[in-house]
Amino acid sequence: MASTEKFSPCKVNLMLAVLGGRPDGFHELLSLAAPTKFGDTLRAETADGADSLSCDMEGVPTDSSNLVLKAAELFREATGLKAHFKFDLKKRVPAGAGLGGGSSNGACALLAANELCGNPLPQKSLEKIAAKMGSDCPMFLTRAPVVMRGRGEKVFSLKGEARECIGRLKLLIFKPDFSISTAWAYSQMRAHPEDYMRENAAESALSEWLENPSVSGLPLINNMQIEAFKKFPALQIALEEIRARFRVPAMMSGSGSACFAIVNGLEDGEIAGLSRLIKEMLGESCLVARA
After folding, report:
1. Averaged pLDDT score across all residues of the chain
2. Is the pLDDT of residue 220 over 90?
3. I want to staple 109 with a disulfide (CB 3.0 to 4.6 A). Which of 1, 63, 68, 245 is the partner?
4. For 111, phi and psi rounded to 5 degrees?
5. 96 pLDDT higher than 90
6. For the segment 184-201, what is each residue's pLDDT rounded down to a tens digit?
7. What CATH fold (topology level) applies to the domain 3-157?
8. Sign of the CA dihedral 129, 133, 135, 137?
9. What is the rounded (10 degree) CA torsion for 199, 205, 210, 214?
10. Which of 11, 70, 91, 175 is catalytic?
């Protein structure tokens, strides 16, 4: 059987401005997002008769609710091929983190299926399929930092200095034991419309950075933090302590509960100290990973 293996990176939202609710139930947003060096590994091979998925992380669904198997189904619909696949997922990225782990897995499964069948679908077709799977999925097809608009499905890859700038980032990602439901997070935004960011203000902040990209000038905005911090004040306290003690930018990613610190200015020993501080504040079971 033919096989392939894909690295499935998680992402961080370096900027996430939720602009308002849409009639279709989604939200309009503007985001600057980037894949990271931390992620899962998805192995795929052709199979006879039916798709299957195995995963080494407890609690991860391996039925049709998983985007990996959804990707295989949508691939067959788009191509008319009868191919089936066996997937094995080595999972490191936790669910309920705001890191897009499941979306990344689905996008990688789509790429793997296409590769194993001789690449019958061009990039644009893959992007359309990915958009059906979820708002975050199209960005993981690019393998590059992107600007996302619409509900997240309108993806524009960064080029030149902006791309190089984000490529230089050194991140420390951390996620406490608790998770935040994406559905809950967006429902809270809809219930508190005063939390929405004005589109012209968001576009202006992003445009200013794109004109003169720098690590220090990144538009670190995430208005989903507002309601998350009300329910989970430990996140806000931890981020404020990190910024105060280590003088580094730190923010929640996406809908949370994962957060990140930009550690370009820190030595290895200082990063180790920051990691210890995070576990002291959020618990020894808190995931901490360099990316």
Report:
1. 96
2. yes
3. 68
4. -65, -40
5. no
6. 999 999 999 999 999 999
7. Ribosomal Protein S5; domain 2 (3.30.230)
8. negative
9. -150
10. 11
Which residues make Cβ contacts (< 8 Å) with residue 201, sequence separation at least 6? 17
φ, ψ for residue 34 (rounded to 5)?
Answer: -145, 135
Length of the chain measured in residues: 291
Closest Cα to residue 68, out of 116, 104, 118? 104
136 as an active site residue: the answer is yes
Provide the H-helix boundaries in the chain: 67-79, 101-116, 123-133, 160-167, 182-191, 199-211, 225-231, 233-246, 268-282
Helix count and strand count (H, E) for the chain: 9, 11
* DSSP letter for each residue of 83-121: -EEEEEEE--SPSSSSS-HHHHHHHHHHHHHHHHTT--S
pLDDT for 1 equals 76
| 194 Cα distance to chain centroid | 25
Q: Which are the contacts of 236, defined by CB distance < 8 A and separation ≥ 6?
A: 225, 229
Confirm whether 3-157 and 160-290 share one CATH topology.
no
Domain layout of the chain by residue ranges: 3-157, 160-290
User: Is residue 281 scored above 80 in pLDDT?
Assistant: yes
SS3 content of the chain, % helix, strand, coil (to 5): 40, 25, 35
Task: Kindly report the pTM of this predicted structure.
Answer: 0.92
Instruction: Summarize pLDDT for 19-69 with one digit per residue, the tens.
Output: 999 999 999 999 999 999 999 999 999 999 899 999 999 999 999 999 999
Catalytic residue among 40, 51, 70, 136: 136
Q: What kind of architecture, by CATH, is found in domain 160-290?
A: 2-Layer Sandwich (3.30)
Cα–Cα distance for residue pair 141/143, rounded to 1 Å: 6
